[in-house]
Specification:
Blueprint lengths: L35 E9 L2 E6 L6 E7 L13 E6 L9 E6 L5 E5 L7 E6 L3 E7 L7 H14 L2 E7 L7 H7 L6 E3 L11 H8 L3 E6 L5 H8 L3 H4 L18 E4 L6 E4 L13 H4 L4 H4 L18 H6 L7 H15 L6
Amino acid sequence: MARSPRDYDESDVRIRPNKRGSRPRSKDRPAHLDAVPGMVTAVDRGRYTVLMGTDDDERVVLAMRARELGRKGIVVGDDVALVGDVSGSPDALARIVRVEPRRTLLRRTADDTDPVERVIVANADQLVVVSALANPEPRPRLIDRCLVAAYDAGMSPLLALTKADLADPGPFLSSYAPLEVPAVVTATRGPAGTDGLDGLRDALRGRVSVLVGHSGVGKSTLVNALVPDAYRATGVVNDVTGRGRHTSTSAVALRLPGGDGWVIDTPGIRSFGLAHVEPERIITHFPDLEAGTDNCPRGCSHDEEECALDAWVAEGHAGPAGPSRLESLRRLLRARTPEKGD
Ligand SMILES: Nc1nc2c(ncn2[C@@H]2O[C@H](COP(=O)(O)OP(=O)(O)OP(=O)(O)O)[C@@H](O)[C@H]2O)c(=O)[nH]1
Ligand SMILES: [Zn+2]
């Protein structure tokens, strides 16, 4: 029978030896001191899937949050400390008593004025912006927003351009070249030897990478190619076609074969709200445009007549994507100052 959270209290805490060999907890010793470490790989309705242990000892443990955590959010990628039944047996439920300090935090908001932040993932170091070259067409505004989110989160961006069998990646690549964002091109339906997956694997090696993209760009296809038994391993349901699908509305962390890095799959997005990014900082997240602000008047909002960016972009300094990038920048600035309207 499944146990309810109520079944657990301080007296139920059983301590497993960890690598350093933990001592049994005495009555006055707080639970968090004897807790063992793990990483959150999935979140579903208040239940957290946590990977614990190393090598032979590795196991997946289901956990709930401990009351003492209060309202603190726990997201995929979080390093946590657990107490309770960390055996990983089917009916076991451990408790997360601590969330370790995060190295990075990828956030978005529903729209640009929404004060409610959705934390997508913690501790990832690379944001892979997945965009199809065709069907659906690339959405530069969304891509630009994802890039801003990556820079703001302190993550390095990577463009993954899919469906190269349907459209020549050349024009897109050259228009984005001034940004100096690394890009990989894939074609999982192309002729043999042209799928580009090795390039993607190289770019993912040894890193924790979050994949984001609009629905239909081929993200699941990539994840399934990179981690063939991913969804089986995480207990996520495969449909009859064998195509991995997770029905949850949150992210899932999957280890790359060989243990050399992680990919974190996220549900398809339609927008990427940036209400959490300070308007003054937005320009610093457009590295291809920032140099053009040297001649701006003091305190320029970069969305006013005197702004030097228009002339600079018109002179071609930001390359072929310059006008579109400037438009992205201005849209973002306007969205963050709603009184100006858009
Ligand atoms: N021609 C072509 N089709 C592809 C390629 N990659 C994926 N597709 C197809 O594009 C469609 C969408 O692919 P998915 O992998 O489900 O896309 P997704 O981004 O995960 O979409 P959501 O699950 O809605 O977020 C499917 O029909 C795939 O077979 C590709 O490289 N070339
Ligand atoms: Zn300006």
